[in-house]
Each structure stands twice: as C-alpha cells, then as structure tokens.
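Email to the structure team, subject: Antibiotic biosynthesis monooxygenase model.

Hi all, the expression group asked for a predicted structure before they design truncation constructs. Nothing fancy, just the tokens so they can compare against earlier work. One-line instruction: predict Antibiotic biosynthesis monooxygenase, return tokens.
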Amino acid sequence: MTDSSATPSSATPSSATPSSATPDVAHGPVPQPAFEVPYYAVVFTSVRTEGDGGYGETAGRLEELVKDVPGFLGMDLARTPGGLGITVGYFRDEDAIKEWRSDMEHRAAQKRGREEWYESYTLHIAKVERSHGFRK
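Reply from the structure team: attached below.
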C-alpha cells in the first residue's frame, strides 16, 4: 500500500502519447502513485468531436511540454469507447497550475479545442489532502 507521505518514484505521466490510431484506448495501465500531500488535481473531462484534425499530435506535444512546468507531478489519462475522456493532472501547488494555464502553446491548444476538438468539457481543480494507493 502506498502511503500519502511517500515520495513518488517518478514525476512523469503514466501514459503513452495518445495515438490517432487508437483514440478510444485508455492510456497507461498503472495509475500515478500517491504524492506527498497536499497537492492539486486538475480534472479535465471531455467529449471529443469526430475525427482527429491534429488532436493526437497536439496532445502528445502538450504531454511533453507540461513535464517542464516546475511543480508538475504527473498525470493519468483515460478515454472510454463512448468518447468520454478524463485527464487528471497533478501539481504541487496553485502556482504550478497557473504557469501551465498561461503557457502560450497550451493556450493555443485550448482555443483550438473549443473550436474543433471538443463537443463539451468540464474542468475541476481540487486540493488533495489525503491520498492512498495499492499495487501488487
């Protein structure tokens, strides 16, 4: 069992780069470990439009870019066959979230997402005060 006071062994996403060939496959079979609390979870749920239109390439680029944000801890990604996507990004503090939110390449992708890639989306930001995990 992973305790909330444990330090993660890696601060990289537990996912592979999204592929336009497999858009409905959950990415990464292992969830992120519990991080030292407190930290923040940014939960982005979305329903995609039809087609790729460069989405896969942009998503892969953003997954690499966010790793350079000081305070970024990792992410979990999943997409159902029905099209519901869930991305959870983990950040040490609100300043790290603000830095990611204001990144110009990320802002351009957000704009394109509203115009082309998403039917709908919801964003939740939560402070995590307890975190537990289990792995065999």
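The first strand starts at residue 39 and ends at 48. Residues 104-117 form the longest helix (14 residues). Ping us if the truncation boundaries need rechecking.
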